[in-house]
Write a structure and sequence with these properties.
805 residues, disordered N terminus, alpha/beta
């Protein structure tokens, strides 16, 4: 016997509900009255008894039509079981004589054509007269009342016997919920109790229909009691046999018997071989991978445990995954290096324009690998703004060496387990990213690109940058231990190449393990060459065009570079070229063009109005206005620093999103000017009745750093000495209170920005003379560099000469 909580009709398969519509609940406080006329819903393979709430799945079109048309008028329907369950659309003659009236509580429309209704069965009913047969049955019905026997002791004993037999049977059934006991124990109506038990007994539809049609409660109770007693006797006999057999079998025999039985069941179900056979297969795969001896010993210990585990054990799948990971790692698989330096140079030149310093360092790296293949080379880190080709350089190195290339993005990684892996005690544990990537690469010596190493995060789950210290140390990573593997793995043959936009976020210990190779931004000439050689052909091909269908004039590319991009790299430039190619592809697809040559006049038609207006040199010289040079992660910029004097009490106001360091530079510049009023020709009391306002335009952009000290000093000195600053000169440098000019960083990026703005003279610290070889030749051709050591030299070069009287 099973106590059922729901019964699904067999006229459709059940699907997830996607729409729920509830019938109105008006009048629920009043007793439910069964109308004399009801729509009749045929059901098959199931017989329903009064007093049950359950769902029914409706799949037939006629049944759906019945519900859709009848429910808006009333929630009561008739449910009658079909005589022939195979008949798809039975008429009134195909239904049993007695059914039940039911109230529809919910109407659920599924994603397909099926619907589900939740009903509460009310009373037995019989069809008195059929009023409508198509498209669904509607008939006059009569409620069938059950005849109750006289309330004597014999009747009470019969009902009590039925209740006790049902409770005893429930005790022998392990899956029956506790609520079923309470319902059987507390139900007072004998007819309802008989209906409940009849509904729950494992009887066929014909037997249940006989019980449904029995209106004499006494006969119905006795019939149900007979069936419950028979089921109880069988259950008690099964329990006795089970106890007798168990007492005659020892624990050892029982385990052996059950193990053999389990193997036989698995073979019948086609679930594969047992744990011992699978362990042998895993051991064979592991030996083929040829790991070190200590790894084999660790794996053997796990396999011995595995061979005694039941497949349903939680550790079963954990050990299988662990051994499979060990077997799939490239313990002894190495790619053979191609150390032809000429070929390496050709590949680097093929994939990248210019970057001679970087290419020279990479060829040196390959030369060392050729002379000493077993050596541990340094960890390279390409430092530069976005879009300058850092990641593609790593791909070129892999191509030159003939090794697999693996790119691992570290941006946003903030869990140490991403590097070292999860311990196998956790559910869903897995190796760290390094082991996973080596597993996919299938070789122990790929070129592994650690992209965006400066974007690593840190939180309560650990510090990934600290976990990288072991990975990137050539003298430690030969025995890297992943928490998941718990055995050493040799990473010393992997060529690690990191990339970063700037090094400030990288901790000093990690920075110490890498050799930083700086890649500066491109000049406009370099961008033009890159666009002509690489970007235009690639975008023409990617957008379905032929080389002869779309051409770009050099002037058009120059205009795109100057008016539609504002970056140190070429990523945005490629996007803009792609936008033009897509527009041209649309013209070809419409049949409007056969060949297009893009000119500079056509650029606004494809890309719209210019997006960027670059800062240019000052149109005229004016006291208190100086052009400074700044460095940003995406390249250099020029800054017009403005100083204004107005009546006040000698204070200073700084605006333009200036950081703390830049504010300190302004204070130092003001103090330095005040200390040199005599040398600068400024009246001694000029500062007493005046306030100074220093503003750096582009106020929405944060700015910081000490390199604007020279420019601020010059602006204040120019303002109070009333001497204009040269409009074609720009300057950078940090100052001290002694008037010395200290070196700065990013000289190449700053001078590129000055050259784009039309600056003719760059005033830079003398100590930065060592960085001039990195400045592009085209910048040196069009710009004069003035090297200064003191602020006096700065003023001499920056301020316009005073004409003699």
């Amino acid at each position: 016997m099973t106590i059922e909580t729901s019964i699904l009709a067999k006229d459709a398969a059940s699907e997830p509900a996607s729409q729920l519509v509830e019938a109105p609940l008006a009048g629920e406080d009043q007793p439910i009255v069964i109308p004399e006329t009801l729509p009749i819903l045929p059901i098959r393979n199931v017989v329903l008894f009064p007093g049950n709430a359950l769902p029914l799945t409706i799949g037939r079109e006629s049944s759906r039509k019945l519900l859709e048309e009848s429910l808006p008028q009333g929630r009561i329907i008739g449910l009658f079981t079909q005589k022939d369950p195979e008949q798809n659309d039975p008429g009134p003659e195909g239904l049993h004589r007695v059914g039940v009236a039911a109230s529809v509580l919910k109407f659920i429309r599924q994603s397909g054509e099926n619907v589900i209704i939740v009903i509460n069965t009310l009373e037995r009913i019989a069809i008195r007269k059929v009023l409508l047969a198509h498209p669904f049955i509607r008939a006059e019905v009569e409620v069938l009342r059950s005849a109750l026997p006289a309330d004597d002791k014999h009747w009470q004993a019969t009902v009590q016997q039925l209740r006790e037999s049902a409770l005893n049977l429930i005790e022998l059934m392990p899956d029956v919920p506790e609520q079923a006991r309470a319902v059987v124990r507390e139900m007072e109506d004998p007819g309802r109790l008989a209906d409940l038990l009849a509904n729950s007994l494992s009887l066929d539809a014909a037997q249940k229909q006989d019980l449904l049609e029995e209106l004499d409660v006494e006969k119905r109770v006795r019939a149900v009691l007979l069936r419950v007693s028979a089921r109880l006797e069988i259950a008690q006999l099964q329990q006795k046999i089970q106890k007798d057999v168990a007492s005659q079998i020892s624990d050892t025999q029982r385990r052996a018997f059950l193990r053999e039985q389990l193997k036989a069941i698995q073979r019948e179900l086609g679930e594969g071989e047992g744990a011992e056979e699978q362990a042998a297969e895993l051991r064979k795969r592991l030996e083929e991978a040829a790991p070190p001896k200590d790894v084999l010993e660790q794996a053997d210990r796990e396999l011995r445990r595995f061979s005694h585990l039941h497949p349903a054990s939680p550790e079963y799948s954990v050990i299988v995954s662990y051994i499979e990971t060990l077997a799939e790692l490239p313990w002894s698989k190495l790619s053979e290096d191609n150390l032809d330096l000429d070929r390496g140079q050709q590949i680097l030149d093929r994939d990248h324009f210019d970057l001679e310093k970087v290419k020279r360092r990479l060829i040196e790296y390959l030369a060392v690998r050729k002379l000493k293949p077993s050596g541990h080379g340094p960890i390279l880190c390409f430092l530069g703004p976005p879009g300058v080709g850092k990641t593609s350089l790593g791909q070129s190195i892999a191509d030159a060496l003939g090794r697999k290339f693996v790119r691992m993005s570290l941006g946003g990684v903030h869990d140490e387990a991403e590097i070292r892996g999860h311990r196998r005690t956790y559910i869903g544990s897995m190796p760290g990213r390094f082991i996973q990537e080596l597993r996919r690469a299938g070789t122990r010596n790929p070129v592994m690109m650690l992209d965006e190493i400066d974007k690593l995060g840190r939180d309560a789950r650990g510090d990934p940058t600290s976990a990288l210290l072991e990975v990137l140390d050539p003298r430690q990573n030969h025995a890297f231990v992943d928490h998941y593997l718990d055995v050493p793995f040799d990473l010393s043959q992997v060529i690690f190449i990191a990339t970063a936009n700037y090094m400030d976020p990288v901790p000093p210990p990690l920075r110490d393990r890498m050799e930083v190779i700086e890649i500066a931004g491109y000049t406009d000439r370099e961008k033009l060459e890159i666009a002509s050689r690489y970007l235009v052909p690639r975008q023409v091909e990617e957008n379905g065009l032929e080389a002869n269908q779309c051409r770009f004039e050099s002037d058009a590319l120059v205009r795109i570079i100057s008016d539609y991009t504002h970056e140190a790299g070429v990523r945005e430039l490629e996007r803009q070229i792609g936008s033009v190619c897509r527009a041209i592809a649309a013209l070809f697809a419409k049949g409007q063009k056969s060949e297009v040559t893009v000119t500079k006049e056509m650029a606004p038609g494809f890309l719209g109005p210019p997006k960027y207006i670059r800062e240019t040199k000052l149109a005229s010289s004016k006291p208190g206005v100086v052009t400074g040079l700044a460095w940003t992660p995406v390249g250099g910029e020029i800054l017009h620093i403005e100083a204004l004097r107005y009546p006040g009490k000698g204070g200073i106001l700084l605006t333009g999103q200036i950081g703390a360091v830049m504010k300190e530079s302004a204070q130092a510049a003001l103090s330095l000017v005040k200390s040199r009023v005599g040398e600068l020709g400024i009246a001694p009391d000029a500062f007493k009745g005046s306030d100074i306002h220093i503003h750096v335009p582009a106020g929405a952009v944060p700015k910081d750093g000490p390199s604007a000290g020279v420019a601020m000093f010059t602006a204040i000195a120019s303002l109070f000495s009333d001497r204009p600053v040269r409009s074609d000169a720009a300057m950078t440098g940090e100052i001290t209170l002694r008037g010395l000019v200290l070196p700065i960083g990013g000289l190449k990026e700053k001078t590129l920005a000055a050259q784009r703005a039309g600056i003719k003279t760059a005033i830079i610290p003398k100590l930065n003379e060592k960085d001039l070889p990195d400045v592009p030749a085209e910048v040196k051709e069009h710009m004069e560099f003035v090297l200064v050591e003191t602020v006096d030299e700065v003023l001499a070069a920056a301020l316009e000469k005073i004409a003699p009287p």
